[in-house]
Amino acid sequence: MKVNGISNTKVFINEQVTQKKSQNNSAPEVKDKIEISKVAKEKFQEVSRSKIERIKANIANKVYDSEDVLKKVAENILKEFNE
Fold first, then answer.
1. Rounded to 5 degrees, what angle do the CA atoms 38, 42, 47 make?
2. Cα dihedral sign for 51, 52, 53, 56?
3. N- to C-terminal Cα distance for the chain?
4. What pLDDT, on the 0 to 100 scale, is given for residue 21?
5. Confidence band (pLDDT; 50, 70, 90) for 79?
6. Which region among 13-17, 38-42, 45-49 has the lowest average model confidence (pLDDT)?
7. Using alpha carbons only, what angle is made at residue 32 by residues 27 and 37, rounded to the nearest 5 degrees?
């Protein structure tokens, strides 16, 4: 069977990968990479700051000392132990 239309570039690239594999005697190392934009980082910092300020205000106003909050925390702890 004859196959037409194979590009020389693809063959050359495959040969390079094969050569690298045989030189290292192992598979090439593949690493994932993620980039976070400057705008996203700034937005995260803004949100984080506002959450921190809200938590500080709740602590100052003793919101977390209320019976309802303590009960919810205790219930969630029990759920974790039962699961």
1. 150
2. positive
3. 61
4. 53
5. very high
6. 13-17
7. 160
Q: Residue type at 70?
A: L
Residue 73's pLDDT is 92
* DSSP secondary structure, 24-81, as one string: HTSPPP--------HHHHHHHHHHHHHHHHHHHHHHHTTGGGSHHHHHHHHHHHHHHH
Structure tokens at 79: 């759920």
Q: pLDDT over 70 for what percent of the chain?
A: 67
Q: How far apart are CA 35 and CA 13, in angstroms?
A: 27
Yes or no: say if 28 and 21 are a contact pair by the CB < 8 Å rule. yes
Q: Which token pair is 17?
A: 């990968």
Longest dimension (CA), the chain: 81
Residue type (1 letter), 74? A
